[in-house]
Amino acid sequence: MTVSALVGGSALVGWNDLCHLYRPLRWGQVRGITWFAPILLNGREAQDLFDSALMQARTQACFAGFRKSNPGDPNPFATKDAADGAGDSQKVTRIEPGMIVDIGNSDMVFAQPSSQSQFGTVYLAAMQAMAAGAGITYDQLTGDLRQAN
Q: Could you give the number of structural domains in the chain?
């Protein structure tokens, strides 16, 4: 269920019904800088951090293995039929769970995913900075009441 379905859907609002939120800095000022200007860049950075942490977790979940073999040795994992796109000379463009990739020199190496991540603390700090920039509390911004008293 989408958010728009919960609130009754979206509707077009006429330009004369819009209210431009800004802090007037001079007398008679008609337009200004939005209240959200201090936090827009930080919000974008937080979203990029979230996206990269998600991609890192997905990549680490693959746990790929790499088989090194000498040049000219047969590859037991390769499909000789190049019509299906899985021939001997195919380049790796996608890592999948349980995948074993032949990279030459007869050795087996497994990926070592990093178990330490600073995502939680950095994302929390970004959300707190966004809340402070918007003039509200972290609890009001996120609805997270774990650290509230």
A: 1
